[in-house]
């Protein structure tokens, strides 16, 4: 019997991709953020991973995601805790027939290099379950963190289910050059809408107009917002996709049509602030224009996740969707990447190539 057990184990070692003991590195948050995140808020910890149990897989991260929500969410975690975040990872060993060695998975395993997990057992605290990256042909696997991942589905479902734009309507997007905003605007153009974006630099606005075919794009730091809206939206606004909050959002919502729809995705303008900024109250605009304002987390559509990915992939293959990535390099540069996106360095999705 002992020989049979040993033979079975050796067979698994040979064909599962087993490579012996693995040491993973991970970021542990030890201090809650004050202002911008800092390297001193973290420790990089090494841990030895155990051998795989039945049903488990071992993954090695290739791309890690940095997203604005990370700055806002960590205040709710008891310290010390591993830093949250999504990643595209390659399966390097497997004891799960549905997850073969060499396949790629997308999951919220956090800021870590290697992970052991059982895809059949959801882990408490993870935003989304682990899933196999679909065949995306010649496109980079990093898109599983962008237009073919959570940001893409945020744009898809936020627009389709909440904004519900009709051809000929006007939609305004803030944070319009980011991973979600740039995608939302392109969906608006696909659906026949007039699309207006606000972003944080002239270069970003030029990209939105010339590359993504936004009807208008404005640098919110240098324009008169009300004048820009009157110029670009003579028939006022029907839909607003809000990524930033603050006074900019208040101004936009006072310029909406009756029965306008607002999808509130984020409030990046205040993520680094220790005291929430004041902004013009919105209740009069909401009441008198009978606006429908809905905040959302994309996880509400987890049971339709493939629908969003497949729709975005089809638009990508048809040439209707374009993407840009801001790639940072090196696991040791995760904090710099997070700070970079909070400062608005990125156009499109920001990712970190682990090595």
Can you characterise this structure?
The chain is an alpha/beta fold and 355 residues long. It contains 10 helices and 16 strands. It has helices at residues 2-15, 69-73, 150-163, 179-190, 202-210, 225-232, 246-253, 283-288, 305-317, 334-342, and strands at 22-29, 42-49, 57-65, 81-82, 87-94, 104-107, 114-117, 131-132, 170-174, 194-199, 216-219, 237-242, 256-264, 292-295, 325-329, 349-353. Strands 3, 5, 6, 7, 8, 15 and 16 form a 7-stranded mixed β-sheet that branches. Strand 12, helix 7 (246-253) and strand 13 form a beta-alpha-beta unit. The two termini are 44 Å apart.
Layout of strands and helices, then pairs:
Blueprint: H1 2-15, E1 22-29, E2 42-49, E3 57-65, H2 69-73, E4 81-82, E5 87-94, E6 104-107, E7 114-117, E8 131-132, H3 150-163, E9 170-174, H4 179-190, E10 194-199, H5 202-210, E11 216-219, H6 225-232, E12 237-242, H7 246-253, E13 256-264, H8 283-288, E14 292-295, H9 305-317, E15 325-329, H10 334-342, E16 349-353
Parallel strand pairs: 9-10, 9-12, 10-11, 12-13, 13-14, 15-16
Antiparallel strand pairs: 1-2, 1-4, 3-5, 3-7, 3-16, 5-6, 6-8
């Amino acid at each position: 019997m002992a020989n049979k057990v040993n033979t079975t184990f050796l067979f698994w070692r040979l064909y599962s991709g087993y490579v012996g003991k693995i040491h993973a590195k991970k970021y542990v948050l030890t201090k809650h953020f004050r202002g911008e995140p800092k390297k001193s808020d973290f420790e990089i910890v090494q841990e030895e991973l155990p051998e795989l149990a039945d049903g488990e897989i071992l993954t090695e991260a290739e791309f890690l995601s940095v997203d604005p929500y990370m700055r806002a969410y960590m205040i709710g975690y008891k310290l010390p805790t591993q830093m949250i975040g999504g990643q595209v990872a390659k399966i390097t060993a497997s004891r799960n027939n549905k997850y073969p060695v060499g396949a790629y998975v997308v999951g919220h395993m956090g800021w870590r290099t290697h992970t052991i997990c059982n895809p059949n057992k959801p882990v408490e605290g993870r935003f989304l379950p682990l899933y196999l990256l679909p065949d995306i042909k010649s496109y980079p696997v990093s898109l599983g963190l962008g237009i073919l991942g959570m940001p893409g589905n945020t744009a898809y479902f936020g627009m389709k289910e909440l904004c519900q734009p009709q051809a000929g309507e006007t939609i305004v997007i803030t944070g319009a050059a980011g991973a979600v905003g740039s995608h939302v605007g392109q969906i608006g153009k696909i659906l026949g809408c007039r699309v207006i974006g606000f972003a944080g630099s002239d270069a970003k606005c030029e990209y939105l107009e010339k590359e993504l075919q936004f009807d208008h794009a404005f640098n919110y730091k240098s324009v008169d917002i009300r004048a820009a809206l009157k110029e670009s939206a003579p028939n006022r606004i029907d839909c607003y996709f809000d990524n930033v909050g603050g006074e900019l959002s208040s101004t936009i919502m006072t310029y909406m049509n009756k029965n306008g729809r607002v999808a509130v995705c984020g409030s990046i303008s205040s993520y680094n602030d220790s005291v929430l900024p004041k902004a013009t109250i919105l209740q009069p605009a909401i009441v008198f224009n009978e606006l429908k304002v809905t905040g959302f987390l994309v996880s509400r559509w987890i049971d339709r996740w493939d629908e969003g990915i497949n729709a975005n992939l089809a638009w990508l293959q048809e040439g209707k969707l374009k993407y840009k990535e801001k790639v940072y390099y090196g696991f040791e540069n995760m904090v710099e990447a997070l700070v970079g996106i909070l400062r608005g360095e990125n156009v499109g999705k920001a990712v970190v190539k682990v090595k």
